[in-house]
Amino acid sequence: MIKKIFLSGIQPSGRPHIGNYFGAMKQFVDLQNEYDGYALIVDYHALHSLRNPTEMNENIKNVLLDYLAIGLDPNKVTIFKQSDVSEHTELCWIFDTITTMPYLMRAHAFKDAEQKNKEIDVGTFNYPVLMAADILLYGPDVVPVGQDQKQHVEIARDIAEKFNRTYGEIFKLPEAMIMKQVAVVPGTDGRKMSKSYDNTIPLFAEYAEIKKAVMSIVTDSSGGIPQNVFAIHRLFRDENELKKIYEEKSGKYKELKEMLTEDIEKFIAPLREKRKEFAKDIPKALAILKAGGERAKEVASKKMVEVREKIGVNVY
Ligand code: ADP
Ligand code: TRP
Predict the structure, then answer these.
(1) Helix 207-215 to helix 253-279 angle, to the nearest 10 degrees?
(2) Is 131 in the pocket of ligand 2 (CB under 6 A)?
(3) Which of 10, 93, 312, 314 shows its CA 20 to 30 Å from the CA of 218?
């Protein structure tokens, strides 16, 4: 029986947080027994915001350890980095030639950057096309991501359709897989939790760091139930049970935050320990990444043979 395929990626742009975990990474682990999986470290994507080679190098190793520590099994999921498979950037170029500028100008990330009057590099503008190549080379059925990536997966579908229409059917249309309950995990300030907002609870935080982050959660002064605290707490405890507790302890923000700190600690402590174990043998972890890259390269290069055939550059 042919297994279904999932594929997703994380940028090595900083420490992952519980929003990344519940919104995306946890799904990778949940899917790995029933699906063949690809978990990417999208280092070329991260270049648009990270131009420090030492940091890039460290971050790549960090995402690798994160993947292993959350329980991804390299025998079930191909863990690899984008820069090991040059077919991604090659296919991106081919997709560039069938994607129009006005179409990409409708992407949220581009519109946000434009609104903020940021200087936009071509890589940032083109970001969704590289992501389409990441996805379509491997023919995944589903792409588990948080809500903010929904549009990018739709762009990948559109590009696949355009290619198929222009040159003939070779790309499977992927579906975004978004868990409703955790589509947007809020940060300590109530906005979406994000590395770029400085409002995160890091996934592998030490106790003191968890405590500091929880204590900094902005509490609404009206009503006894601090919504921001509750919204994060429900990731760690049954919602009905929590509702009762929050009603009983109405107005006691400090106590509720202390309880949340303990609940997060209980959840994170074993992950943190596992991560420390993997960190003791970096060469072993890197061997997993390298082997994953080789496996991915095989699949991607086969797909590129088909692509080159379709566009007519195969003359030998
Ligand atoms: P960030 O916004 O912190 O830079 P990334 O862009 O690296 O995060 O996102 C990695 C994955 O985590 C993506 O699938 C994204 O949709 C998901 N994700 C990021 N932040 C959240 C959040 N606050 N809630 C749910 N999912 C999220
Ligand atoms: N754009 C995604 C993010 O910022 C990362 C990403 C790159 C990705 N390529 C991908 C996610 C392919 C899923 C599939 O989070």
Answers:
(1) 150
(2) yes
(3) 10
Own/partner contacts of 113-121, CB < 8 Å, gap of 24 or more, are 121/48
From the CA of 146, give the closest atom in ligand 2: 15
Q: Would you say the pTM of this structure is higher than 0.90?
A: yes
How many angstroms separate the CA atoms of 37 and 140, rounded? 8
Rounded to 5°, the CA angle 96-101-103 comes to 100
Digit-coded pLDDT (tens) for 84-100: 999 999 999 999 999 99
What is residue 109's predicted lDDT score, i.e. its pLDDT?
87
Q: Which of 110, 155, 108, 109 is nearest to 136 (CA)?
A: 155
From residue 236, give the alpha-carbon distance in Å to each of 9, 247, 254, 264. Answer: 24, 18, 18, 7
Q: List the Cα angle 211/247/241 in 5-degree steps.
A: 75
Determine the angle formed by the axes of helices 282-311 and 53-69, rounding to 10 degrees.
Answer: 100
Q: Is the CB–ligand 1 distance for residue 26 below 6 Å?
A: no
- Counting ligands in written order, the one closest to the CA of 41 is 2
**Rounded Cα distance, 128 and 182, in Å:** 23
Ligand 1 center from residue 23 Cα (angstroms)? 7
User: What is the 9 CA–ligand 2 centroid distance (Å)?
Assistant: 5
Query: 152 CB under 6 A from ligand 2?
Result: yes
Ligand 2 pocket member 142 (CB < 6 A)? no
The full set of domains in the chain, from first to last, is: 4-183+282-311 (3.40.50.620), 195-276 (1.10.240.10)
Instruction: Compute how many other C-beta atoms are within 10 angstroms of the C-beta atom of residue 111.
Output: 11
For ligand 1, the distance from its centroid to the CA atom of residue 29, given in whole angstroms, is 16
As a whole-number percent, the residues of the chain with pLDDT over 70 amount to 99
Task: Name the residue with the closest Cα to ligand 2, atom 8.
Answer: 9
